[in-house]
């Protein structure tokens, strides 16, 4: 019998049964050792294991702020002093819950306390009480996770569901060993009647003496439960970008990269975006004060792009072209690639290139917009390329990701014709734009020094996480919630 099993049975002989924590304390064994020994003894009939089917409850950072009182409780205390004008400063969450609880009514444009609300003042509030119980079980650890047994969960289930509805907690069913009890067989094993000479580990001496031929080997239960393990994992966005990278490489594309800090020349001008276009304004683009200018080394290229703008937009200013910005799209990398690879006698066309990287937009933040996002940009340089080639390339890519896309005509300054691909997100009831693309305008390819046809597309990657991670807002990707990062479901393509 293994020493862990012997220690466990010896501890239980007088007590009859105990929980895992008590056994660890009484035997000096670690939790993993106790779990292993109990499962091994269970397979031999030496112990019985009682399982409690409770729940693991994760408490959100918002809920931690309610430990001393909920906003509706604070509003109730204010209403006890007199009615409040609805035009005043009233917390929206508090207003919703005082009405839902029947603590207040609206009369003549004012919020007034009800008789039920007066009775609630100073009395226990179920949501605060349950939150207090949960917090006491976490020890205020880094994860803020509490385990609640089945019996206790039955008592607080309704209130816990209300907290989950408010997104203050997340409830996940979880089983846990409640008691380990010694059996008659276990007592006999301990006394030596059924101890046997099972071998748990082969040694040189055992092999040499051939003792193993007369003794049994201790069985292993490969399905025995073990403690949760949290191995190192990539961030889901990095993990997804790697999957996307492999998909394009498998289709014969070559990955390229470019700087995050760009001149307005490469970010806008080389892509035929007029210098007075609204996207160049402060509310859309992040402009840098250091460096204050970004010179263009290729003076002939600068002149060529200037001629394009003067002919197409009737205006040009070198100083605007030198403004440094945080790139607003990875299409700036494609512009560099057209210049570098668009006219070579040593290359075999068509050439397929792509880049993946972070871009920056001075956006209004909502569930599908952030100031920073990740973008994929791709181009194919060759002769005779058309819209059919572009649609076929994008359909193949998104089909590999499990999306059925819809195309519609769209306008982008640097392509003609242009198109946009979208998919319908059923959870949000909204069409989510996936990418835009088209055939790079001849004015651009000529200014960048090539007579080749170029098809191009730019795609946001962050929004695809709605489908793969089941999140409701892009901000969830970057909230640094270690509990969510550990337990998130794996990406499956």
Could you give the topology of this structure?
Elements: H1 3-15, E1 17-18, H2 20-27, H3 31-44, E2 47-59, H4 61-64, H5 71-79, E3 84-85, H6 92-100, E4 104-107, E5 110-113, H7 115-120, H8 126-138, E6 145-148, H9 150-165, E7 169-182, H10 184-191, H11 204-209, H12 236-250, E8 254-255, E9 261-263, H13 264-267, H14 299-312, H15 318-321, E10 324-326, H16 331-341, E11 351-360, E12 372-382, H17 387-400, E13 406-409, E14 415-425, E15 430-440, H18 442-447, E16 453-460, H19 465-469, H20 482-487
Parallel strand pairs: 8-11
Antiparallel strand pairs: 1-7, 2-6, 2-7, 3-5, 4-5, 9-10, 11-12, 12-16, 13-14, 14-15, 15-16
Helix pairs in contact: 5-6, 8-9
Shape: flat
Strand order of the largest sheet: 8-11-12-16-15-14-13
Count structural domains: 3
**What is the name of the CATH topology of the largest domain?**
BirA Bifunctional Protein, domain 2
How confident is the prediction overall: mean pLDDT?
88
* Rg, Å, rounded: 33 Å
Describe the structure in your own words:
The chain is an alpha+beta fold and 493 residues long. It has 20 helices and 16 strands. It has a 7-stranded mixed β-sheet with strand order 8-11-12-16-15-14-13, sandwiched between helices. Strands 1-7-2-6 form a 4-stranded antiparallel β-sheet. The protein has a 3-stranded antiparallel β-sheet with strand order 3-5-4. Helix 5 packs across helix 6 and helix 8 crosses helix 9. The longest helix is centred in the first third of the chain and has 16 residues.
